[in-house]
Structure formats: structure tokens, C-alpha cells
Write a structure and sequence with these properties.
- By secondary structure, the protein is of the alpha/beta class.
- The two termini are 18 Å apart.
């Protein structure tokens, strides 16, 4: 059994990065290998004055063994330094032979967390969903002052240089969609010969339309699932669009899964006049989430930025028409006018117009649903995408993987 190091972000139970980690972990285990997570423990730094932070450094100066779900891991201390430095610091320990695993994989949103292995000269694969400047821009558009500041000046240049090192030094780059593939090749033309587009695989045996009409709920609702408090998701714009929809469909509801809403989100819903029509249902089990997809009339995404949009893939696999902003990843997933509609960023008027059109026309919904399910099976089902990922692993590490 060969040890594999998966360089990633601090693991969370929910979210796209950990979903991709689980996919990679399953492939590694099925191939007889033992995956370990390696990440920087960002949530461990205490707030307070410099004395508090210095005390933290003195007691958390070295990596520690950790466990997340069924993954063993190595958590590096998060020093209270500029963000570019936090990506660099783990490299100091990567010189230790204990951390030079034979197989190295970077699984992330943006690429910077792969900097430690990029500086060692080892073979590695990087599977990413976004460019860091896109992520910062999406946050800044939603009013995130930290993102606006980080995206300019010396810090931005250093972060871009780290991203360049990780991507250009990789043995293979896997992009989680055509949008990010094009962004990478345009920015780093030298990697054009070693980049592949492999979309997150959806288990279409689990995520599927309801089998019979009798299973359909009588209540009509629009669905969004994700980190609803993340400013990049731009849920406040979704509330404005929903308010427009309610002028024609007063009985429809908006269902939001994911986090419990923060005060800002509740205030936004109240200001838009839709709070009483919104159901915040919190975290869902996988089966509960599938049931919500299957019962929705329309799936909506109002984001300012998405590297891919796994929830969009899952919704389509369940046969739900999608109305999304042109926020990156969905641009190459949703076929405009065939499986759903795409609108400009912050365009609540046209988002509402397309939602209303779908609610009015059951035949159009059925057409989009059938198209979405067919596309899911052909283009991003687990059977298709897992085979592509396994082939990529074999091409970089032929001595460890067979196809």
C-alpha cells in the first residue's frame, strides 16, 4: 500500500473542494493506496493581540497528526502572516523525508496550496477549479474588503507568482471545466500540452429524476443549495429576483440549503420583501438533498464567481432546469436555451424573467429536464469522469496505477 499526499485546503464536511478530495480518495483506495491529507490549519489562529499570537506560535510551531472523516492527515500551523506566506511555510517541513510521499496530488479551488510540493521538484498532479484572481474578484464584487485589498499590490503579485509555480511545475494539470481550462491556458500557455479538462463526477445512480409522476410534491418551489452566507454566492441578488417572480407566482417558495442564514442574509431577504416566502432548511443529508433536487421546479445560482458549480451538475442530473449567472464554471455546463438559461452578473430582472418563463411552461421544463439528464450521463457521470481521472493518474504514475 503506497502512501499518497493530497495537498488541499483545511477540510470541511461540505463544499466543492472536499467533494473532489473524496473522489480522489476513492480512486486511490480502489487502486490499493493510502491517501493522507496535508493542509494548513487556518481556523486555529487565535484572535487578539500579538502576545496571544506569539504564544500560539510557541505552542503550535510544528505539524501535527490529524484525522478528518476516515482520512489521516498532517495539519501545519497557520502562522499569523500575510496569506502568501502561509502557503510557503509548509515547504520548510517538506524537506523532511516523512512528508515526501511517492504520489503527490493537489486538490483545491485555486492552486496555491500546492506550493510546498511544487518547490520540491517531485512529480505531482494538480486538480483545480478556479484562478485565485477570479476568486478574489468574486468576493470583492460582493463587498469583501479583505479580498479587494488582497487582490492588489505586492500581496497579489506574490500570490500570482505562487500560482504560476504550482501550475507550471505540475506534471499534469487537471481543470474542473472548460472555463478554467481556457483561463489557465490563456495565462500560462506553456502548460497547454499537459492540461486536461475533467469535470467533477456526479453519481447519476444516486442523483436522478423522480421515477414516477405520483412522487412529485404538490408545493412549488425554487431551489438553491450551497454556502448561502458566502458573499460570492450573491444570495441577496437572488432575493431581488425572487421578489419579481412573486408578483406573478405568489404561492411559489424559495428553498435554501446549506448554512444557517447570518444576520446580513436575513436582512437582505427582509429588505427584498421575501423573508416569509423563503425556507432556510440548513444542512441536509445526501438523500434529503436529492429529494429536494427532485421536487424543485427550477434550480437557481446567482453567484458572482464559480470555478465549476457542483450543485448545478447535481441539479441537472436530477432533471432540474437551471437558471444561473454567467459566473464562470456554469457557462460551460448549462446549455443556454437547452438545459436552462444564463444571465449576466447581478441581473435580477432577467433571472426572474427566465424563472417565470419556466414556471409558466411545463412543456419547456420537461424538455430542459430531459436534455439535462442526457447531458449528465454523457458528459459528467461518475462512470465517465472517474475513468478519465484514473487515466490521468496512470499517465503520471504508471508504476502505481493500471487502466
Amino acid at each position: 500500500m503506497t502512501k499518497v499526499c493530497i495537498h488541499t485546503l483545511e477540510p470541511l464536511q461540505h463544499g466543492g473542494v472536499m467533494a473532489k478530495v473524496r473522489v480522489v480518495g476513492e480512486i486511490l483506495r480502489d487502486s490499493g493506496h493510502h491517501p493522507h491529507l496535508m493542509y494548513t490549519a487556518t481556523d486555529q489562529v487565535p484572535s487578539g493581540n500579538w502576545m496571544t499570537k506569539i504564544k500560539y506560535l510557541l505552542t503550535h510551531a510544528t505539524p501535527s497528526a490529524t484525522q478528518f472523516e476516515d482520512y489521516q492527515g498532517i495539519a501545519f500551523p497557520y502562522w499569523p502572516l500575510p496569506i502568501w506566506a502561509t502557503y510557503f511555510c509548509p515547504w520548510l517541513w517538506m524537506q523532511d523525508s516523512r512528508y515526501k510521499f511517492p504520489i503527490q496530488v493537489v486538490v483545491s479551488g485555486a492552486a496555491q496550496c500546492g506550493l510546498p510540493v511544487a518547490l520540491t521538484g517531485q512529480r505531482y498532479i494538480v486538480w483545480i477549479s478556479t484562478m485565485y484572481e477570479d476568486e478574489l474578484e468574486g468576493r470583492a464584487l460582493a463587498g469583501d474588503a479583505w479580498a479587494a485589498k488582497t487582490g492588489t499590490g505586492l500581496s497579489a503579485r506574490l500570490l500570482q507568482y505562487e500560482e504560476k509555480l504550482v501550475i507550471e511545475n505540475a506534471t499534469m494539470v487537471i481543470a474542473n471545466g472548460e472555463y478554467i481550462t481556457n483561463k489557465i491556458v490563456n495565462k500560462f500557455p506553456s502548460v497547454a500540452g499537459k492540461i486536461r479538462t475533467i469535470v467533477y463526477p456526479v453519481d447519476t445512480d444516486l442523483f436522478h429524476p423522480r421515477r414516477t409522476i405520483q412522487e412529485q410534491d404538490s408545493d412549488s418551489y425554487i431551489l438553491f443549495t450551497g454556502r448561502i452566507n458566502d458573499p460570492r454566492k450573491n444570495v441577496s441578488m437572488l432575493f431581488k429576483a425572487f421578489a419579481r417572480v412573486l408578483t406573478e407566482f405568489s404561492d411559489v417558495r424559495l428553498v435554501l440549503t446549506g448554512d444557517e442564514p447570518n444576520d446580513y442574509l436575513l436582512e437582505s431577504a427582509s429588505e427584498a420583501g421575501v423573508l416569509s416566502k423563503v425556507d432556510f432548511v440548513g444542512r441536509q443529508t445526501e438523500q434529503q438533498l436529492i429529494s429536494l433536487y427532485q421536487g424543485a421546479e427550477v434550480f437557481v445560482l446567482a453567484s458572482n464567481q464559480e470555478g465549476l458549480g457542483i450543485s448545478v451538475l447535481e441539479a441537472m442530473a436530477c432533471g432540474v432546469p437551471v437558471v444561473s449567472t454567467k459566473c464562470g464554471g456554469p457557462d460551460n455546463i448549462v446549455v443556454d436555451g437547452e438545459t436552462g438559461f444564463l444571465v449576466d452578473l447581478n441581473d435580477d430582472y432577467h433571472m426572474a424573467k427566465h424563472i417565470t418563463r419556466l414556471l409558466k411552461d411545463p412543456h419547456l421544463r420537461e424538455k430542459f429536464s430531459n436534455n439535462a439528464v442526457r447531458l449528465a450521463h454523457e458528459s459528467f457521470s461518475r462512470k465517465v469522469m472517474t475513468k478519465s481521472l484514473l487515466t490521468a493518474f496512470h499517465d503520471v504514475y504508471p508504476e502505481y496505477f493500471s487502466v
